[in-house]
Amino acid sequence: MKIVVIGGDGQLGQDVVRAFADHGDAVVGLTHCRIEVSDIDSVRSTLEEFKPDLIVNTAALHHVEKCEQDPQRAFEVNALGPRNIAMVARELGAILMQVSTDYVFDGAKGSPYKESDVPQPLNTYGNTKLAGEYFVRSICDRYFVLRTSGLYGKSPCRGKGGLNFVDRMLKLGKERGSVRVVDFETVTPTSTCELAKQIVALSRSANFGLLHATAEGSCSWYEFAREIFSTAGLPIIVDRADAQEFTSKVPRPHYSVLDNASLKAMDLNMFRPWQIGLGEYLAR
To answer: CB 278: neighbour CB atoms within 10 A?
Structure first.
């Protein structure tokens, strides 16, 4: 299978490229220097060059504050980008796999969100990612839209300053001996390595549509930090931070746990409890 991964130099993109290569596929990772997703001519000329069977789009403007400051650019990348890719995928007869986010929900439900739940984004990032989903679903016949949550991986996340939450906690803990972490946001930490393996497995199926794809279980950022230091065997003190201590100008869902209901119904769910993924990440 010939595969193109857009955003191939990103935190998720690098693991996706590696996973397909390990599977024996002919895979190319495209960086921003090779393709500008907001420019239909750039998308068309680049993808026509490779003529892929499958396009995986991991590219996004996912810095929540920057999206709020520049909503036009956020819409260009997160919404028009998937639209452009979807149009060219349809022209080439390629399958499109679009990576989306748990931030399409407002968190009011308080229990794991299924694919059938109605989205209600709280911020520009969530709104633009949801718009990207709708473009893909309205343009393509053969597509996967994968919503995920709390990603971390060994490759730097350039859009968020390089360090993921795990590495940032380890750095701060070693420097200070203690950290303060919020306890009012509940997510599902998901290893990019595990998500990449799930993407490869899905690429071999024809179970197209909207899918949730995260590790199993959930925790607050405070609980995640405690597990990081416990698993790493580090005696770092983790304190609960007050809500006012780390104020954000951008509203975020306080609960954004996803239920992989569709993957489970199709017997394709490869995810394990989030603690296992964390243990493997720290071991690597």
So the answer is: 23
pTM: 0.92
Could you tell me the domains of the chain?
2-154+190-216+257-272 (3.40.50.720)
When pLDDT is averaged across residues 75-85 and rounded to a whole number, the result is 98
115 pLDDT higher than 90: yes
Check pLDDT > 80 for residue 248: no
- Please check whether residue 59 is in contact with residue 6, taking contact to mean a CB–CB distance below 8 angstroms: yes
125 classed as catalytic: yes
Three-state helix/strand/coil letters over the chain: CEEEEECCCCHHHHHHHHHHHHCCCEEEEECCCCCCCCCHHHHHHHHHHHCCCEEEECCCCCCHHHHHHCHHHHHHHHHHHHHHHHHHHHHHCCEEEEEEEHHHCCCCCCCCECCCCCCCCCCHHHHHHHHHHHHHHHHCCCEEEEEECCEECCCCEHHHCECCHHHHHHHHHHHHCEEEEECCCEECCEEHHHHHHHHHHHHCCCCCEEEECCCECCEEHHHHHHHHHHHHCCCCEEEEECCCCCCCCCCCCCECCECCHHHHHCCCCCCCEHHHHHHHHHHC
Instruction: State residue 246's pLDDT score.
Output: 67
Both ends of the chain: CA-CA distance in Å? 29
Choosing from 125, 143, 152, 255, the catalytic residue is: 125
